[in-house]
């Protein structure tokens, strides 16, 4: 694809966007280690805590539905500039937060920014990747998972050892996003505006009839993986503090690192796996990791809990990537965008709504009881999906084709632009 108005070399622009993606996910994870501190300071319940978390995911989902393909028509550069400017504003809201309402506003604005950046970022990385490579898909995955892991770890360190624990990380991010804006302004533009941007704002969610059987069979796995991520990102810090009695704020960040950092490493190691291998290994690893994590919570073993979380991280990527690649392969070429959109609508709903339900359950069953039932549900859903894979023999041709498709984000991360993914699949 020819760049329009190229002011930065394409390789430089590619790696710059990879860093911006990582920075966006860094910012997305930054509040997670702080939730416990916010809760102690402003005295709100676990239900409210998970609602604050879910507000981000739901705002992201709604924005993605309406503007996910906007950059295909308006241009990549203006959409990215606007999204990063909105993200910067959300960091200011967090830095100056004076109460619970500020957290809701900050998370909603941040979700809008991430949703707006979603299509433009993933599509531009695919536009700028070397011809014939899948580097754009790989770096989307690595930057997303790595950004979440580094964000949680860095915030935990700053909260534990730095000054102004609820402000410093956000002002550092304000500085970083401010520095990124002039660099984004000189990105090579890879799209010629076509004037059809208003029509692109109509949300469409559908699953073609030919894919519905496979979609129903893989639905349990998609829900399980993203629901688990939602639990870690919302209540992970509370679990390590209240159940495992680790009172360091760094521990709240490390539990997310265990899940997301492992996911980033597996994204690289498993990039050439077949679909069937992903759909077998992923659920097994995730079930084993969750089961061990529940044992750790019952016995109070922090070491086992972190090991189990890492094992669950090994399972997340292959489980979801195998499902996505299967569905995009089975879908007719001209309807892949619909399938991808449907998958991510389901994914972001699973990322947010079960976490809110967990927050509600905590008041009745406690953190350990809630985590036990939640984890058991995740294991049951993954077992159903695994059984379906064992009983179903995917066509060899579909499995071979699927190896070339799919950009798989980390939990809570930037999803691929449906049109970009559909184009990459050809």
Describe this structure in words.
The chain is mainly α. The chain has one domain: MFS general substrate transporter like domains (Growth Hormone, Chain: A, Up-down Bundle), CATH 1.20.1250. It has 15 helices and no strands. The chain has helices at 10-29, 35-42, 46-67, 71-74, 76-95, 100-128, 135-161, 168-184, 209-243, 249-269, 275-299, 302-330, 336-391, 396-402, 418-424. Helix 9 (209-243) crosses helix 13. The longest helix has 56 residues, at 336-391. It is globular. The two termini are 15 Å apart. 59% of the residues are buried. The model is unreliable at 394-408 and 421-426 (pLDDT under 50).
Task: Compose a concise summary of this entry.
By secondary structure, the chain is mostly helical. The protein contains 15 helices and no strands. Residues 394-408 and 421-426 have low confidence and may be disordered.
Query: Over all CA atoms, what is the radius of gyration?
Result: 20 Å
The share of residues in extended strands comes to under 5%
* Helical amount: over 70%
Mean pLDDT over the full residue set = 83
Taking pLDDT < 50 over at least 5 consecutive residues as the criterion, the unreliable ranges are 394-408, 421-426
Mass-distribution shape: globular
CATH top level assignment: Mainly Alpha
Supply the CATH superfamily name: MFS general substrate transporter like domains
Individual helix count = 15
- Distance linking N and C termini: 15 Å
Here the CATH topology equals Growth Hormone, Chain: A
Question: What structural category arises from helix and sheet content?
Answer: mainly alpha
> What order do the SSEs take from the amino end to the carboxyl end, as H and E?
HHHHHHHHHHHHHHH
Number of domains: 1
Q: What kind of sheet is the major sheet?
A: none
CATH architecture: Up-down Bundle
> In total, how many beta strands?
0
Quaternary state of the chains: single chain
């Amino acid at each position: 694809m020819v760049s329009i108005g190229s002011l930065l070399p394409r390789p430089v622009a590619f790696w710059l966007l990879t860093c911006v993606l990582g920075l966006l996910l860094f910012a997305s994870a930054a509040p997670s280690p702080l939730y416990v501190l916010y809760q102690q300071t402003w005295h709100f319940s676990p239900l409210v805590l998970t609602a604050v978390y879910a507000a981000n995911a739901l705002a992201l989902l709604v924005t993605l539905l309406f503007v996910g393909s906007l950059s295909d028509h308006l241009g990549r550069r203006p959409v990215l500039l606007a999204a990063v400017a909105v993200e910067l504003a959300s960091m200011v809201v967090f830095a100056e937060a004076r109460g619970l309402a500020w957290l809701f506003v900050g998370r909603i604005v941040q979700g809008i920014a991430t949703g707006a950046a979603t299509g433009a970022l993933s599509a531009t990385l695919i536009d700028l990747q070397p011809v014939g490579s899948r580097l754009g898909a790989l770096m989307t995955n690595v930057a997303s998972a790595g950004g979440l892991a580094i964000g949680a770890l860095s915030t935990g360190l700053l909260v534990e050892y730095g000054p102004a624990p609820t402000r410093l990380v956000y002002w550092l991010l304000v500085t970083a996003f401010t520095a990124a804006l002039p660099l984004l302004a000189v990105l090579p533009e890879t799209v010629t505006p076509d004037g059809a941007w208003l029509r692109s704002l109509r949300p469409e969610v559908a699953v073609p009839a030919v894919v519905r059987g496979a979609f129903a069979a893989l639905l349990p796995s998609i829900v399980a993986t993203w629901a688990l991520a939602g639990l870690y990102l919302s209540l992970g810090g509370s679990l390590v503090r209240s159940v495992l009695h680790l009172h360091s704020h760094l521990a709240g960040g490390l539990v997310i690192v265990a899940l997301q950092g492992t996911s980033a490493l597996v994204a690289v190691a498993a990039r050439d796996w077949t679909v069937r291998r992903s759909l077998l290994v992923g659920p097994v690893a995730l079930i084993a990791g969750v089961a061990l994590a529940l044992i750790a919570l019952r016995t109070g073993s922090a070491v086992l809990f972190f090991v189990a979380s890492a094992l669950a991280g090994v399972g997340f990527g292959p489980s979801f990537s195998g499902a996505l690649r299967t569905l995009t392969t089975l879908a007719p070429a001209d309807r892949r965008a619909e399938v991808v959109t449907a998958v991510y609508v389901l994914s972001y709903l699973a990322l947010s709504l079960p976490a809110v339900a967990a927050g509600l359950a905590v008041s009745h069953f406690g953190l350990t009881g809630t985590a036990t039932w939640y984890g058991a549900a995740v294991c049951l859903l993954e077992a159903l999906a695994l059984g379906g894979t064992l009983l179903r023999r995917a066509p060899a041709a579909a499995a071979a084709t699927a190896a070339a498709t799919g950009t798989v984000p980390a939990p809570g991360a930037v999803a691929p632009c449906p049109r970009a993914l559909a184009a990459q699949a050809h």
